[in-house]
Design brief:
By secondary structure, this protein is an all-alpha fold. 50% of the residues lie in helices and 0% in strands. It is built from 6 helices and no strands. The chain has helices at residues 94-98, 104-134, 136-148, 159-183, 186-207, 213-239. The protein is elongated.
């Protein structure tokens, strides 16, 4: 006996006898058994003129400046078309410019030179006073001999005049050092260097003693530093460049 083959019955869900495939919506890649239709929410649909989801109105300017088209407002995101601020940062004062990182080399030279000049001037007063007190008897002996032999006052030693001269020189050097430190003055530095060189040569010729060398070096550094600093400051004043490292 031959058995009859039973044909498969077509159910209402599959009347064509073929397997149903999910539709591809929106050009998305075909993924069997996955559908994103359930994520669509009609409540998320809104018109552009109604604003965004937070209630902010869209600007009529599309970022090109012509006012055409609708787009979101400009919220200050970097790189947008916000107008640049009209005001510039406050201009630096001379002291602020002096303290800026770019002037570190000149600043150190000016400060160190001023300290050396002032310290050397004060030290010279102390040193001269010490030697005048230590050689007081010898000085008196020389004066007595000069008076006894009639050699004249030009061969006598006047401790008070020596001390008075040294105090005047020290006051001048202290004033020049303060001028270099406070005002970054090129005139003070150049004047001090010339005055010190002259005193050094005079001491070598008259007393056969080499002095003032520390002061000469300090004034030399001060001249170089003040010229360099004032050149940079004048350039900043003329061009008004707004640099971050200033």
């Amino acid at each position: 006996m031959q058995l009859k083959v039973k044909e498969p019955e077509n159910t209402p869900e599959n009347t064509s006898g073929t397997e149903t495939q999910p539709q591809n919506l929106g050009g998305q890649p075909d993924v069997p058994g996955v559908s994103n239709n359930g994520y669509l929410n009609d409540e998320m649909d809104f018109l552009a003129e109604d604003g965004d989801m937070f209630g902010n109105q869209f600007s009529q300017n599309n970022g090109t400046g012509n006012g055409a088209g609708n787009g979101p407002q400009n919220y200050g995101v970097p790189g947008n078309s916000d107008p640049e601020p009209t005001s510039k940062p406050r201009k630096l004062t001379k002291q602020e410019f002096f303290n800026s990182p770019r002037n570190r080399k000149d600043r150190d030279r000016i400060i160190i030179s001023s300290i050396v000049i002032i310290a050397t001037a004060i030290f010279d007063v102390v040193r001269v006073d010490f030697w005048l007190q230590a050689l007081k008897k010898q000085i008196q002996l020389v004066n007595d001999l000069s008076e006894e032999f009639g050699l004249g006052e030009e061969n006598m030693i006047d401790p008070q005049a020596i001390m008075r001269t040294q105090v005047i020189l020290s006051v001048i050097f202290v004033a020049l050092g303060i001028g270099i430190f406070l005002f970054k003055s090129r005139a003070c530095a150049i004047t001090g260097l010339a005055f010190t060189v002259i005193n050094c040569l005079y001491t070598i010729v008259v007393a056969h003693n080499f002095r003032w060398y520390w002061t000469i070096i300090a004034f030399g550094y001060a001249v170089v530093a003040t010229i360099s600093f004032n050149k940079n400051w004048q350039e900043y004043e003329d061009h008004g460049e707004w640099k971050k490292d200033w």
